[in-house]
């Protein structure tokens, strides 16, 4: 949920689909369906921060602090379903803040950084809750084989520490990528503005300089 989705999003699967799919016959149908699906209202909702951030946090707090996780982890199918849920939630959260593919809702660098800054402390707080818990939180893990010699509370404390430290590192890397892109785009816009000024001049600056020259030519200005 924390490490895999950024790698998938950085792979630009949307752009890869558009470039690799043939534009004839079946490929054309796939491309049209992909474009319509991406521009649809459900896609806009699914990729909106108002949906992705609560979903991302609900995957931790709602599952692990309720009885649902214990029920799901009791069987192989439930365990796999939880893994898929975590992966989907991670991709939905990461795509708006990291993707360069054409998304239905364009978000600026400031908004992307804000989403990460909101998520990071809430995710870290979940790890602290697990670390400080005095009893096992997941019923499915309360009966390990006696030969393992596992201290459930101590083992859970280690898991909370991993959720805190391991989870925050990918978030920090994503935040650094956002800031690097932000700085690069600002530098590119500044260079473009300088080129436009060099080619066409700056009307406002030229008018201001002409105004200063007119003041300098006024009688008594030298006094």
List the helices and strands and how they pair.
Layout lengths: L3 H7 L2 H8 L5 H14 L1 H6 L2 H16 L3 H5 L3 H23 L10 H24 L19 H49 L2 H15 L6
Commentary on this structure:
With 223 residues, this protein is mainly α. It has 10 helices and no strands. The chain has one domain (4-217). Helix 1 (4-10) crosses helix 7 (76-98), helix 5 (49-64) packs antiparallel against helix 7 and helix 8 packs antiparallel against helix 9 (152-200). The model has no long low-confidence stretch (mean pLDDT 81). It is 75% helix and 0% strand.
Number of helices: 10
Strand content: under 5%
Order of helices and strands: HHHHHHHHHH
Unreliable sequence segments: none
The total count of strands amounts to 0
**Overall SS class:** mainly alpha
- Our count of domains comes out at 1
Estimated radius of gyration? 27 Å
Mean pLDDT across residues = 81
Largest sheet: none
Shape: elongated
**Helix coverage percent:** over 70%
In whole angstroms, the N-to-C terminal distance is 73 Å
Membrane topology: Multi-pass membrane protein
InterPro entries: Caa3_assmbl_CtaG-rel
Main location: membrane
Protein name: Cytochrome c oxidase assembly protein
């Amino acid at each position: 949920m924390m490490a895999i989705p950024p790698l998938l999003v950085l792979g630009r699967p949307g752009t890869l689909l558009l470039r690799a799919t043939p534009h004839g016959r079946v490929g054309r149908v796939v491309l049209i369906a992909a474009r319509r699906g991406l521009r649809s209202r459900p896609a806009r909702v699914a990729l909106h921060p108002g949906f992705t951030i609560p979903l991302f946090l609900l995957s931790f707090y709602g599952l692990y602090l309720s009885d649902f996780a214990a029920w799901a982890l009791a069987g192989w199918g439930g365990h796999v379903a939880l893994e898929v849920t975590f992966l989907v939630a991670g991709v939905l959260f990461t795509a708006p803040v990291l993707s360069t593919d054409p998304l239905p809702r364009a978000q600026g660098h400031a908004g992307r950084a804000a989403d990460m800054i909101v998520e990071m402390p809430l995710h870290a707080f979940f790890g602290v809750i697990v670390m400080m818990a005095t009893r096992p939180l997941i019923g499915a893990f309360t009966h390990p084989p006696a030969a393992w010699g596992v201290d459930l509370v101590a083992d859970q404390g280690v898991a909370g520490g991993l959720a805190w430290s391991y989870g925050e590192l990918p978030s920090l890397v994503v935040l650094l990528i956002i800031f690097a892109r932000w700085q690069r785009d600002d530098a590119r816009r500044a260079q473009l503005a300088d080129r436009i000024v060099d080619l066409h001049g700056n009307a406002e600056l030229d008018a201001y300089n002409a105004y200063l020259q007119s003041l300098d030519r006024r009688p008594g200005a030298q006094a």
